[in-house]
Amino acid sequence: MKGRNDSPLPSGFGTRPWLIQAHGTRKVTQTFVDTLDRSLHEVIIPEMRGKICLGCVHDGGWLMMMDEATQDCFLLSVTDRRSKILLPPLLRLASSEYMGTCGVLGSPATASFAVVIASNAESEQNFLLCCRPGDEEWTDLLAEDGGIRFSGGVVSHEGKLYVSIFCGDLVVVQLVGGAVQAQILRTEVEEEPPLYGSLARYLVVSCGDFFAVKVKYLGRPYAGALNWIVVHRLDPSGNVWRRVESIGRDRAFLVSGDYGLSCAATAGQLEGNCVYIVWSSCDCERLYKFCLDDKSISFHQILPEPTTPCYRAYWAVPADCSVQATEFNQQALLSPPPSNEATTLPNDLDKDSEEQQGDSSPPWHDLPPELLELIASNLSLLVDRLSFLAVCKSWSKVSNPIQQAKAQPWLMHSSKQDGTCKILHPLRGTEYILQVVSFKSDKERQIFQSSKDGWVVVSGGLEDDEIFIINPFTQDIVEPPLFESFYRFCGVTFSSAPTSPDCIVFCICSSLSGAYISVETWRPGEDEWSVLRFEELEEPFPVAHNNPIYFRGEFYCLGRKGNLAVFNPSDNTWRVLHKPEPIYAELHVFDDDHDGAKFCYLVELGGELISVFMRSADEPPRVFKLDETKMAWTEVEDIGGAALFLDHRVSFGMVSPGAGNGNKIYFPRYSEEGKHSAFYDLGTKTYYPTFYGLKEPLNCVWVVPNLQSDEYAPSD
Prior knowledge:
This protein is mostly beta strands. Helices cover 5% and strands 40% of the residues. The radius of gyration is 28 Å and the shape is globular. The N and C termini lie far apart (86 Å).
């Protein structure tokens, strides 16, 4: 099949995993992505011209192709001499409506095989289509049982196909006496918090073991930021899905569209114990790397524009990159404890040091308060202040408002449920370990959702319906009642210290279109949340995923279009402000091409409201200040000596961060060694150290340390 105006395949293709994007009738060429250096190669392959790729099958060795005009289908092996196998046309499904996942029963290299296509989570129709070489049409195996809803995953193992269902069960498809048959394999899930909200599910077979990768994301499918990833393995002894902390250092999982593959890490030149996920963002098509060792993610741009379902980039994996069969052993695959250079911060305020008990000199706790305050006023580092407060109870009660006012946001993150969390100083690149008893849990998943004044909002519970607010530096904790449903909010904040009787906790979420708004509030002493629903709004307001701001007695929320809405807790009213006018008024929130979509942030800085909009490394962040005299957004080129600390969970503004740190925007990402925090310099208009490839803890939040004990707590 050579010599017909086709191009040679890129150097290195067929030796390691690559990504291939078919363009249908949009382009003559196909795009090959070398994931090693993320270089793009435009290749002419006559067999793929005018065709779209429906997915990758047989461990990534074959692509399922369909002609956009005729719906004719065929299998194509790009890595093996351009082999092609004709299949019946998919006449019942137009290419623009196709939402399915393919699999091959048997090997395409033999005459005895079958192709199966299952509907996925986004399909309007429910089907399980099957054909064999020579068939003139597809057969629907669900003709008599249309109640099954597939979640998208199709994998092959030992001559059978396994199709995942939403409940976790599997449909097993096999050839019996020359006929294709399907039956359901019932499974169970070990007791643990379920994942609610926007989810993508992937099925992966590796060395005979079945794995399920679940990805939780913000926003529209395949268009928002990833915010939680878990991996389960099917325990064959009882067909129970159990969460694992490792998939093995000898392998990596490759995910794209609805397909999940396993690849040998060394042969594929990939990092082991990682999941590589192709995902559309508002700026581009990204390749995420999720490391199970430390529960961190990083991403690179692989295509300059985000894709739509019919034009995804799919994995092509050579046969010699398969993982050698090994017995899965969860304990053996667990990551060894890393050598830790971080310093452990003391936070035991209940006992004096044993050395003092045998000392005849006056005990430290008898020092006069004036002397203690003088000592505390000369401590400039957070670690020194924490150590000072941890000496004994009397020292912990020393008030030091001067140093508290100088506290800067730190990045707190946690990768395990053992009570250990780390705090990173973004301006100095130093990291410390903090032990928080309330973060220790065997089963419950605890996710950082927001913070304010040193208090961190954490969601959890076996049904993801619990929330608590904790000061991790003093261990003070407030526990509001359970939600009526799971935690599903775009943003959460509170008006004042959660121990204050005047505190109001505020949670908000909206439908994607913004036609539906749900608000939940709680005040200390109340037994349940107050739930307010604003439906069929005349002025739709799609809430952006960021923290609301309590500003002058009301909660201000930023919309995806750059306008503001306000909730008044005194009379429980919701109103969309006509001014300031939306910054992106023409944005269509449902467009597949994500045109105009941005990452949005709302910040209070020195008593003023600031909004920030970001898209990609090629576009600088746009910063707007609310001019309250005109009620209009004013774009600014710099923020003077101030600094912003942005994240969708919570954002902070700091008027005076210190010499050399002003006029910068910091992000919850850092270099591989953890020494250099990511920021954008508004003066030089440059991202440091870079925009892509930085690590971000999956469970993290900005927090301004608050070392003050609870002033509302009852006295001893």
